[in-house]
């Protein structure tokens, strides 16, 4: 693919407001996209459905991991000079915020809405599971909050979020944040250096080695190992 064609390819950002890592990635993605003249296509997805699909638990569901998460986030925010003050309650129901953030609902205000909700929740401790709180957050941006709140309960809007999540799973998305660009999938807020290498045409990844390693057989299945352990 020529460089000109590559520059026309968007960066796809898959997120759920439940994840502070998605907030951190979003903070860094816009300047990176601008640097390489790429557009960002943002896709709200239901993190819980990704976990269900791939048989995982969320960080907040594992007690020591929950503590580690906040330690990491506080250090990360201190190192990058911004406030980390998580939502009033967590986990929360993210469906209204995600539906508000669908491109078909938020239209030209999508990126402003995403930035406002992320910042309000993860830097200012606002409640993100409450519709009235979400309305107040977007109203402060001069956006028609009443219109957005009316959309979130519509069956067709609910279906749009289901479709976004289903499409993400079909593309191999297993967690948030996920960034896909030029058919490469990156997971986590710590992937910006790798994404930039790709955007700058300096990706050091050896595809032949990758394919060979992915093709290696698994030595044992975890379920089979548990059964084996029980017999010994």
Question: Would you give an account of this structure?
Answer:
This protein is an alpha+beta fold and 232 residues long. It has one domain: Glutaredoxin, CATH 3.40.30. The chain contains 13 helices and four strands. α2 links the parallel β1 and β2.
Concise account of the structure shown:
By secondary structure, the chain is of the alpha+beta class. It has 13 helices and four strands.
Q: For this structure, what is the CATH homologous superfamily?
A: Glutaredoxin
Helix segment count?
13
Say what the CATH topology is.
Answer: Glutaredoxin
Q: Output the radius of gyration.
A: 19 Å
Taking the sheet with the most strands, its summary is: 4 strands, mixed
User: What kind of oligomer do you see?
Assistant: single chain
| Lateral arrangement of strands in the main beta sheet | 2-1-3-4
Strand content: 5-15%
The domain count comes to 1
Poorly predicted regions are none
Class computed from helices, strands and strand pairing: alpha+beta
H/E element order: HEHEHHHHHHHHEEHHH
Average pLDDT level: 93
CATH class: Alpha Beta
Overall form? globular
Number of separate strands: 4
User: Separation of termini?
Assistant: 55 Å
The percent of residues in helical segments reads: 55-70%
């Amino acid at each position: 693919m020529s460089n000109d064609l590559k520059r026309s390819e968007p960066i796809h950002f898959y997120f759920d407001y439940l994840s502070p890592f998605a907030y951190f990635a979003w903070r860094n993605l816009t300047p990176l996209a601008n640097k390489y003249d790429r557009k960002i296509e943002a896709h709200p997805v239901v993190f819980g459905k990704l976990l269900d699909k791939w048989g995982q638990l969320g960080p907040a569901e594992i007690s020591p991991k929950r503590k580690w998460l906040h330690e990491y986030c506080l250090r990360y925010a201190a190192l990058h000079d911004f406030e980390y003050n998580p939502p009033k309650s967590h986990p929360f129901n993210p469906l209204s915020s995600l539906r508000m953030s669908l491109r078909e609902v938020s239209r030209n205000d999508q990126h402003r809405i995403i930035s406002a909700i992320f910042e309000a929740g993860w830097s200012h401790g606002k409640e993100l599971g409450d519709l009235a709180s979400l309305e107040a957050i977007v109203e402060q941006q001069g956006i028609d909050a009443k219109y957005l709140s009316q959309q979130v309960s519509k069956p067709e809007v609910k279906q749009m979020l289901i479709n976004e999540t289903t499409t993400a799973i079909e593309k191999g998305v297993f967690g948030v944040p996920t960034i896909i660009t030029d058919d490469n999938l990156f997971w986590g807020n710590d992937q910006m250096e790798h994404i930039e290498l790709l955007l700058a045409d300096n990706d050091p990844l050896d595809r032949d080695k990758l394919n060979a390693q992915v093709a290696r057989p698994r030595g044992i299945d975890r379920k089979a190992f548990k059964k084996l352990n029980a017999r010994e």
